[in-house]
Write a structure and sequence with these properties.
About 75% of the residues lie in helices and about 0% in strands. With about 110 residues, the protein is mostly helical.
């Protein structure tokens, strides 16, 4: 009976530690003290100009990319996706920590 309470407190502490660590790491990311884990990266495009039709397509691509740079800064979509993926991961870690802490509470009782 005493061992189950000790194990319960250890499991409860592990769940709380997981929750607190996730919240602390999220706070550090959102205050820009730590960089967001990069899952998505912005691809670097290189345009080759060979031939007449390729030249027109390259010019059109350059014009479109220049217009988009004024509207969206380069890399902003990848940064938004990285933040979204990290937020989902943080939610899963917090949910898992809650479940682990719940198991600890059941063992304590």
């Amino acid at each position: 009976m005493k061992y189950t309470k000790i194990i319960g407190w250890l499991v409860f502490s592990a769940g709380l530690f997981l929750i607190v660590w996730t919240l602390f790491y999220s706070y550090q990311i959102y205050t820009a003290k730590v960089a967001v884990p990069e899952i998505f990266q912005t691809p670097e495009t290189t345009l080759s100009q060979t031939g007449g039709s390729q030249d027109i397509q390259a010019q059109l691509q350059n014009m479109i990319s220049e217009q988009l740079k004024g509207f969206l800064p380069p890399g902003s979509i990848a940064q938004i996706l990285n933040l979204a993926v990290f937020s989902i991961l943080a939610f899963l870690l917090i949910y898992g920590g809650m479940q682990i802490a719940g198991l600890g509470i059941k063992l304590i009782k």
